[in-house]
Amino acid sequence: MAVYFQKREVVVPGQLLAEGRYRSSFGTYDEGGKIYSSLMGLAELRGNTVKVVALEGAYIPKEGDLVIGVITLVAGNNWKVDIGGPYGASLHANNALRRPYSDDISEYMDMGDVISAEVSAFDRQSGPFLSMKGRGLEVLEGGMVLEVSPAKIPRIIGRRGSMINMINDHLRIDTVIGQNGRIWIKSPDVKRLRLAIKAFKMIEDQAHTSNLTDRINRMLAEEVAKLGGSDSSEEPSAEVETVDEEEPIEDETVIEPEPEIIEAPEPEAEAESEAEIVEEAPVEEESEPEASTDEDDKPETEEVNE
Amino acid sequence: MSPEIKPDFLISPEGLRVDGRRPDELRPIELKVGVLKQADGSASIRQGKTYILAAVYGPRELHPRHLTLNDRAYLRVEYRMATFSVPDRKRPAPSRREKEISMVIANALKPALFLEEYPKAVVDVFIQVIQADGGTRCAAINAASLALADAGIPMKSLVPAVAVGKADGQLLVDLGDEEDKYGQGDVPMAILPQTGEITLLQQDGFFTREELIEAMQMGINSCKYLHELQKDALKRVYVRNPEDGEDDFDDDLEADLGESEIMEDE
Predict the structure, then answer these.
(1) Do A293 and B117 touch (CB under 8 A)?
(2) Would you say the CATH fold of A142-296 matches that of A57-139?
(3) pTM assigned to the model
């Protein structure tokens, strides 16, 4: 009965993590009562379940995931949707449109359209199926799609959406975050769009470090202050910028995106799987702003022996 | 380049090898992870003069479709040597040897991977030999297994590999090019360090039963050392330790005879 790793330690494949009455979970495997890591990632112990949070990896669909896809093909009553990763998804018209609908479903959504959808079914036999029945599942128009590593998405959402809500509040932008590593961003002006991209890239690069929310918060606060002075934080929509790709093209089937609602299902799903990782050290608050990651980790590491 | 001349001896009277190593000593090894931006995972290895890049893409959609395996991902390994990797220009067409080594590497890596997690997909491993100086297939396995870990492919363990050979009647670890060419035999091997399972074992030349057993034991010991280097290289991607001066060079065998200090300056 022993655990051989420290909290949030970077582990490598084949590293012995625990022995005894522990349960192996994602990113680990059990061999003869010993639990080893199968990935490079951050080791976690929750209750008696050991798991490794991946730092890299392709997107593997999971039922209930919110994904952002691009329609690649219209085939009869189905749309084929690229959701990244090794598996192409399909979306049946019945799961997207209200009946009766026209025979030619490309009237509603055509090749190249970007959609937010939910994975309704996926198993080893049949590829992922999507559904667009649900709040906030729609054609995404007038924004841009940023691709990041799918493994970093939990960090971008943050604990109960803390990270993404903070970014949205700072920049007054609309975002939809797909579990497949795509982020749809709709910003009133290019400057803020660039800032959003900078913030997301920063999270992606530093996803394995702690106190990230604080650092992003500080970075954004500084940049926002620089960019618009007082008005940007107060009245973002009043700012007139030369925006070309931001023109929202209204469509009668499309309601305005409401990111808060769209993300609502995420935090619960993530809280269960990512809560520990995302948790920021509350002990040392503002004491060392630019402290290196090594120092951040030390105070909270603890050897668990039983 | 002048034509190569067979050295007078492969083991000097003092018992050292042509490059001054002891029989059980590896060449200096430098492993780097994440060297290529485009690939999902990548690694490079420098082992003596051998220099190899490995890139991993996937798991991704498999084309052509007929190769699809319904219960697991297909592991496609392509080992290629650059035309300039050897003194006599290597012809660029894929050779029989390259195809065979690709297969051998795939077979050596497969037992370590949980490919059943990605049915119908493919994991591509591209291995490019930039400079060849003996031991390329083993070095390629070392690099490929790091690249796979970097790509986030689930695996039982990293796979270290090393060649053990015989020259002038003496067993040698990690053969260099000359020892390979003029020696009496070569046993490349790869293991899964946790269980000691052997995933690659080839032999050319003649070995007695006792010699082969001893060679394998030497190989296993060297593989275990290599495994430590691999783990360090992988962790270094995410854990930066400012106290560590020698960040770039990770061969710290005491047999280095102070070389590590020189390397630090680079």
Answers:
(1) no
(2) no
(3) 0.79
